[in-house]
Amino acid sequence: MVEVIICNERTEDSKEEMRTDVNGHTAENVAPESVIFESKEDLETQTQKTSSWIWSVVYLCFYGFMVQLKPGEPFITPYLLSTEKNFTRYQVTNEITPVLTYSYMAVLVPVFLLTDYLRYKPVLILQSLSHVSIWLLLLLGYSLLEMQFMEFFYGITMAARVAYSSYIFSLVPATVYQRVASYSRSAVLMGVFTSSVLGQMCLSLGNVSYMTLSVVSLGFVIFGLLLSFCLPWPKRSMFFNQARLEKERKEAAQSELARINPEKKDGSVAALGSNHNSLSWANSVFVQMLKELKNVVKVPSLRLWSLWWVFNSTGYYLVVFYVHILWNKVYPATENKHVYNGAVEALSTLLGAIASFAAGYVKIRWNLWSELVIGLITAAQAGLLLLMGLTGNIWVCYVSYALFRGFYQFLVPIAIFQIASSLTKELCALVFGVNTFLGTILKTVITIIVVDKSGLGLDVHSQFFVYFFYFTLLTVIYLGCSAFIITCHYRNKRSGQDATEVAIATELSPMASAASDGTTAHNGASIKT
C-alpha cells in the first residue's frame, strides 16, 4: 500500500508539472500534435514494413516451389541409358556422375561466400541459369563431354541452394525466423513432390518420351529464371555487409544531428565518425565467427551432431547420386511407362517430410541418448543398403530407398536444432557451411577411390556394398560411444548417491554423539559430563 500511495503522489505531482509551465501559467494536459502525428506515422510505417516482408515471403515461397518443378529430373539416368542417348552404364556410373561431386566441392566455398557478399539474389539468378544450362545440354548434347558439363552445372545448382535457405532470413524480423523457415522448406518439399508426381503421370499415363519430359522441364526452369529476376533485393546479409550498414547508420545519425543542432556539427559529428576508419576486414563479422569456431568443437553435443552431419550426409548423398543407376541395373525396363523413379521420389519425399515433422515431437534426454539413437538409425540404414545391394526385386529396392531417406530426414531437424539452439544465427550458418564443406571433401575422396575410373572404378552393386560397410563402421563407432557415455552416466549417478548417503550419515553423527555425551538434569537442562 505504501508503494501505491507513493506512486500515486508522484503521478499527481507529474500531472501538476504538466499543467504548469516555468512562468507559472497553466497549460492543457494534452500531448502535442506533433507527437500524435509521429505515432500515427510510426504505426503506418510499421504496418507497411510488415506487409512488405509478408508479400516478399509469399513470393519467395512461390519461387521456391516453381524452381523445383522439373518433372524430368527423376528420369535423367534412364534417359542417359536409353536408346535416345545411348550411353553405357559404365560411362554414366564412372565418368559422368562423379563430375557432380567434383563440381559441388569446387564451387561450394565461392558460392557460399558470394551468396552473402552479393546478398543472395545474384546467386539465385546464377542457380536458375545453371538449371537452364542443364536441360539445354541434356536435350542438345550427345557427347560424353557435354554430359559432364551438364553435371558440372548441376553441382552449381546444389551449391546455390544455400542462397535460398538463408535468403529468407534477410527479409523478415528475427521473431518470425522459425515460422518462415518452415514455410520456405514446405514450399520446396511440395515442389519436389509435385514435380515427381507430374513426371510419373506424364510417363506412365501420358506415355511421353524422355525427350518430351525434358522439354517440359526446360520450360519450367526458364519460367523460374524469369521469377528470379523479380525477387526483392535484401538490404542486409549476415557477414560481409555489416560494416557497410554500420557506416550508413552513422552517416544518417550525423546528418540528423547536423540538422537538429548545426552549431555542434564540427564537434559531435566528428565524434560519431571517429570510429568509422577502424572498420576493416579483420573486424568483419565473418572473421570473428571463424575465430569462434574453435569453441564449437569443445561442446560435446555440437561436436557429435556436426560429425554426424559430415559423415552421414556423405553416405546419404552418395546413395542418392547412384541409386537410379542401381534401379536400372536391377530392372532394365524396356518401356518408359514401367519406370517408376518419379513415384518413388515422390513417396520418399513425402515420407521424409512426415519424418521431419515427427522428429519435432520426440522428447528425450539428447545429451545422454543421442549416440544411441544415431547408432540405431545408422544400423537400420546399413541394413537397408545391404538389402538393396543383394536383392533382385525392384520393389524391394524402391521401399528400402524410401525408408533410407526417411531415416535420414528424421535426424536432420534434430541435428539442426541441437546445433542451432546454442549458437547465434551467423555462427550457426558458418558451422553448417563448414560441416557441408567437410562432408563434400569426404564425398570427393570416396568418389575418387571407389567410383572414378582413375580409382577402383567399381560397378554400382559393388559401390552399395562399400556404402554398407561405411554405415556399418559408423554404427559401431556410435554404439561404442553410446555404451561408454551411458555407463559413465550411471556410474557417476551411483557414485553421487553413495556420496549423498555418506554426507547424510556425517550430518547425523554429530547429533548422535552430542546426545550420548550430554546428560539431562531434573529441570530439563543438558549438562556435560
UniProtKB/TrEMBL annotation:
Its main location: membrane. InterPro entries: Folate_carrier (IPR002666), MFS_trans_sf (IPR036259). GO terms for biological process: folate transmembrane transport. It is found in: Membrane. SUPFAM superfamilies: MFS general substrate transporter. It is a multi-pass membrane protein. Keywords: Membrane, Transmembrane, Transmembrane helix, Transport. GO terms for molecular function: folate:monoatomic anion antiporter activity; folic acid binding. The chain crosses the membrane at residues 99-118, 125-145, 151-174, 212-234, 307-327, 339-360, 372-396, 402-420, 427-451, 463-486. One of its GO terms (cellular component) is basolateral plasma membrane. It comes from the Eukaryota. Belongs to the reduced folate carrier (RFC) transporter (TC 2.A.48) family. This is Folate transporter 1.
